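Much of what follows relies on a compact textual record of a protein's fold. A record is reproduced here so that you can trace the correspondence yourselves:
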Amino acid sequence: MKWEELKNIIIKDISSRALKDPDRRLKSLEKIEIIMQQHYPIYLQNTSNIITTGKESFKKQISEIKGTGLNSAEISIINEIYNKLNPSLQQTKSPLKVRYKVYTCPNCYTMLQITEDLWDQDFLSCPQCGNDFSNPIKEEERLAKIQKGFIVSGMLGDVANIIFWLFILIAVLWCIWSCQSSNKILNNDKFLEYSISNIDSKF
């Protein structure tokens, strides 16, 4: 399959779906095409070279040229390229165990398996309805950080309370000790005065 033919198929497929922001994917397709034109023309000359490279290696190459990680739209376009070039890849199971988390698409309520390579993405794309949505894993991490902050602040508050009451206890003990010391000194003075008065009376 020639690149122009593949490109037109992807554009037609994206346009036919009820996506919230199809232009985002179309721009990503253009961006990937420009990168291939400038750095990997061999892919445009013969699209079978894309399949030979492998999806993950291809993503890594595009990401390295960009200088940043791929966004969800770019990942979706690359997945479309590989699915259109070799539909059997969709049925191929990786022999390696891939970590994933299961969530529901908020648009079509399809159960999705979000693999580990997508956990850092801000937005994800549903392969069923094609719509983008905020990454629930990132939201969970954000809420966990907030909860951890509350726990830490609560612990600091408890420590502050303990220090406060220790200070109060020390102050009370110091007052009691001071009073007892004053009473002893006063008693000693009275005893001394009494002893002196007795001695004087004898003489």
In short: Helices lie at 3-16, 22-39, 41-45, 48-53, 55-66, 72-85, 136-202. Residues 3-134 form one domain.
